[in-house]
Amino acid sequence: MTENPSNADHLPVAGPGPRRVGIVEDHESVVMGLEAMLADQPDLVIVASAPTVPELLAVGADLDLVILDLRLSDGSSPKTNVEQLRAAGLETLVFTGAENPYLVRLAAKAGVLGVLRKSEPTATVVAAITAAANGEQVVTTEWAAAIDGDPGLQDVGLSPRQRDVLALYASGEKAARVASLTGLAPHTVNDYLARIRAKYAEAGRPARTKTDLYKRAVEDGWLPPPLLHPGRQ
Hints:
alpha/beta, Rossmann fold, Arc Repressor Mutant, subunit A, five-stranded parallel beta sheet
């Protein structure tokens, strides 16, 4: 397995040799899969992995590339994650199920080197990581579609608190229950919902009903997409 923050002092010093890769992924099986794919690649070595961007940065490893999952359990925004990594001088390759086009767009427009599906064959994954670790753009269908995505699907700029309220309310909770779960007063929740609707309306993405709010929350990645019925594509 890879290093963790507690072992940061024992990380090897950067120098000539294999390209050094870090992973931000909260599913251990995915990390293990990537380790297996790169195990016989002499030009690549995974030196650190963590479930969040701050935790990876805390390791202090000198990296050539970070492989980033889009949807993490800490609820962080792909745009914020990519910007944090770039601020630390690290380039990013997104490795995702690509289940949410809006999240892909956020990451792509934040300046990643490419967007790669987890379902790609091993040879394709290895080639993409190798290229990205050498600073090359990895042009895939998902990446190109993200860059050229629907210009009408604009980021409405919700605050973290507004996103919490939206996710709870749009998932089916009543306003009173949202107030209880968030510690906000009921009138504050209603005020937040009014402001959320106004922001979506200003962006040309009206959300007049609760169903509309659910659709907007899924589009923007604050709620997971609905599962397809078994047997349907």
